[in-house]
Amino acid sequence: MSKSLLEVDGSLGEGGGQILRSSLALSVLTGRPFHLRNIRVGRRRPGLQPQHLMSVQAAAAISSAQVRGENRDSTELFFEPGPVVAGKYRFAIGTAGATGLVLQTVYLPLALRARGTSEITLEGGTHVPASPCFHFLDVTWRGYLKLLGMEIRVELKRPGFYPRGGGMMEAQVQPCARLRGLSLAERDAVTSARGFSAVAGLPEHISQRQARQAAHRLEKAGVEVELREEK
Length: 231
Description:
Blueprint: E1 6-9, H1 17-30, E2 34-37, H2 50-63, E3 66-68, E4 76-80, E5 88-92, H3 99-113, E6 118-124, H4 134-147, E7 152-158, E8 167-173, E9 192-197, H5 204-220, E10 224-229
Parallel strand pairs: 1-2, 5-6, 9-10
Antiparallel strand pairs: 2-4, 3-4, 6-8, 7-8
Helix pairs in contact: 1-2, 1-3, 2-3
């Protein structure tokens, strides 16, 4: 190995998959290999699950990395990245695992280290618990990245809800020469809000009731509301 191996204890902090994803992204960014142990040891199903395995495989794919321990339920991983290469990638989790978290693993290295535009297709869950849903990524996450100077586009091809999955999203990551600083010290008063109401596998009237209740509460707080229903 050209650089010293960094030892990481996956049981520290909240001890979940975020330690894995951050380690992968930082390793690909810096070119430094790492050894991650105690992966998710405190969870109901310890070790690497399909969503985590796909994050490992995605990071390896964009950097031609050498990997050991990328097996289901593995609690130990060795990862040595190579150069980041832009391209067209397809990552299918095979379950309702969060596509947004796989994207979280690779977007920064592709933006800051690759020399061209990358197109990524991700299959799995697009709206699942304990992870950012597609619409948050599209409306909020992308907006903040743009303020930092990073251009990413995402498109929902097919929604995939937990526990069934089966969703598909596409992302386009533009190369970014450098990031800009961002200061958010003040916030203007909230005077208007836009949104939508949607359900999956439930009667349509539930979506309508959600929209009415949200509009009622926002208008009561003096906020002008524009809500739509998605089917």
